[in-house]
Every structure is written in C-alpha cells, then in structure tokens.
Design brief:
Length: about 290
C-alpha cells in the first residue's frame, strides 16, 4: 500500500453547510405524524442497547420509542434537528428507559466512530444497530444531479452504513441485529429519484451480503423497505410540492403510512421473534406487491 492510498478513514467527505436547509423538522409538519407505539410493551428488548440513526424524527423516532417501550436503552444519531431529537429523548425516557443522542454528519467515518464509541462508553454494549438516516433530493433529469449531491446522497445513505458497521463490528456479540432502511423505490424504480433509489438498491445488496458475511457469527442482518410514509423527508424538500399533495394516494391502500405503522417491522427484526430470519426485507408499503 502506498502512502497516498485513500483509506475509508481518509476518504473524501463532501461537506454539509453549517446551517443545512435539510433535513426538515418534524414539529413543523401539519398534520403531525403518528409515532407513538400502538400497543403495550412486553420486554422484547429487555437489557438490550440500540443505536437508531435518523432517530430524531419520522420512522427513526417511532422505532426508537417503540424499542424503549420494549425495554431497550436507545441512542439516536441525527444531523442537526436538536428540537426533534430532544422530543424523542423525552419520549424514550417517558417509557422508563435511558436515552442518548449524537448530532453530526454520519457521512463522515470519524463521526461514526465517535457515535459508536459514545454508546459503548455510556452503556458498555451495542446489540441493535438501525441504519436509518437518509437524504433524498428530487430531480426531473439526470443532468440536474450535481456531483456534490450525488456524493452526499451516497455518503449519507450508504457509506454511513459501512462506517457504522465497521465501528460497531468489534462490539457486536452473538444475538446482535443490524437493520437497514431501504425503500420501495428500490423495487419499483423512481424516475425522479435516480440517485436516492440507487443508494437504496445498494442498501438492499449490502444487507444481503452482510447477512451472509455475519450469519455464522450469530449476527442477523435484515432491512425494511417502507412505502410513502408521513415524515419530514418528502414534505420538507424530498418531493416536489405537487407530489406531496397526493402523497401515498397511488398505493393500493390509497394513503400514506404513518411512522408507527413501520416501526413494528424494525422491532420484529431487532428481537428474537425473527430469530430464523436474516438477509431479508420487510415491506410496510400500503399493499404494493414487490416480491423480494
Ligand atoms: P426523516 O427526515 O424523519 O429522517 C431522516 C433522518 O436522517 C433525519 O432525521 C436526519 O437527522 C438524518 N440524516 C440525514 N442526513 C444525515 C447525515 N448526513 N448525518 C446524520 N443524520 C442524517 O425521514 P424518514 O422518512 O423517517 O427517513 C428515514 C429513512 O426512511 C430514510 O433512510 C429514508 O430514505 C427512508 N424511507 C422513507 C420513506 C418515506 O416515505 N418517508 C420511504 C422509504 C424509505
Ligand atoms: Mg429529522
């Protein structure tokens, strides 16, 4: 290896503005999303420690709070929406559990190492890693996608998963679970989300390959592929406004899903209920049949 070889530690990281316009803030959505768990806990994650990226809002918040209801201590990682993150932390604590949060860019491998180390320093273990943070930018034409956007979308959506799993790997014991958020766009294609849907394809392939890589160690790796879910992602810049007006109407159920209709898929894959499943994808998507 020569001195100028780019390792993951030194790889190019496309910077984020100091005060980024995205991601959106959940508390500004009208109507507010439904994220509260819909049923009493039964100790399914008792004694477990989970890290949920993008856990400040949307699907991540609903998942983080459901995990807490099931007995897990939960850390959330997010970019910059501290108001939303504090609300999620409060909700985790109201479930009688402990919470921690980390703000910063998960597209930066150094930050990913700090987040995982922060969880280990606080609780001494990591059992469930939910790779859920993501960004999405609509573009009509492939020529509208800038080099910076392409790099950032891949950096946030898929590179971060490599960085986090690399940092977490030494701490993951037999029985640990990794769950990645992919998307229905990966299965159906999405003409206005070329870069985003390509990252989601990579995430599904990564999930399957990592599963085969870790299965003998007793670590399961699965994914969730949501359909249109009412979170800040689409209304706050991830979709053109004319599409947001009809968000989810083209699903068989004719409506968008709520975050608390998706979180149970993550819980199932995180706990022993799914002990014979690895390398698989669940599809809370309003009834769209995608097979896979
Ligand atoms: P969301 O905006 O609530 O969550 C995304 C989170 O990712 C944000 O809260 C943000 O803090 C975090 N994030 C973005 N860039 C980051 C970065 N560089 N570093 C650290 N954190 C960063 O929206 P959501 O819909 O709940 O999204 C969660 C996941 O679900 C995403 O991976 C998204 O692609 C996926 N998804 C969403 C939908 C949908 O319709 N909402 C559909 C399919 C898949
Ligand atoms: Mg957010």
């Amino acid at each position: 290896m020569t001195d100028d070889t780019q390792t993951i530690e030194k790889g190019h990281v496309e910077p984020i503005d100091e005060e980024p316009k995205l991601p959106g803030h959940e508390r500004k959505l009208d109507p507010l999303p439904d994220w509260e768990p819909r049923y009493p806990g039964s100790g399914r994650l008792k004694g477990r420690v989970a890290l949920v990226t993008g856990g400040d809002s949307g699907i991540g918040r609903a998942t983080a709070v459901l995990f807490a209801r099931e007995g897990a201590k939960v850390a959330i990682a997010y970019l910059s929406e501290t108001d939303d993150a504090h609300m999620t932390m409060d909700a985790i604590e109201q479930e009688g559990s402990e919470a921690e949060c980390f703000s910063g860019d998960l597209g930066d491998p150094e930050h990913c190492r700090k987040v995982v180390q922060g969880v280990i320093d606080k609780w001494g273990r990591l059992d469930v890693l939910v790779n859920n943070a993501g960004e999405q930018h609509p573009d009509k034409d492939i020529t509208d996608i800038t080099a910076e956007q392409l790099q950032r979308t891949f950096q946030t959506n898929i590179f971060s998963m490599f960085y986090l799993v690399q940092a977490a790997r030494p701490h993951l014991q037999k029985g640990a679970a990794i769950i990645n958020t992919t998307s229905v766009t990966m299965y159906q294609g999405s003409p206005g989300l070329l870069d985003y849907s390509a990252t989601k394809g990579a995430i599904t392939a990564f999930t399957r390959s990592l599963s085969e890589n870790l299965v003998k160690e007793g670590i399961r790796v699965n994914a969730v592929a949501p359909g249109p879910i009412w979170t800040p992602l689409n209304p706050c810049g991830g979709s053109p406004p004319e599409k947001v007006e009809h968000f989810g109407e083209d699903t068989p159920m004719g409506r968008p899903g709520q975050p608390n209709e998706v979180a149970p898929s993550f819980l199932f894959l995180a706990c022993e209920d799914s002990s014979y499943m690895s390398g698989q994808v669940l599809h809370p998507n309003g009834g769209t049949v995608v097979n896979g």
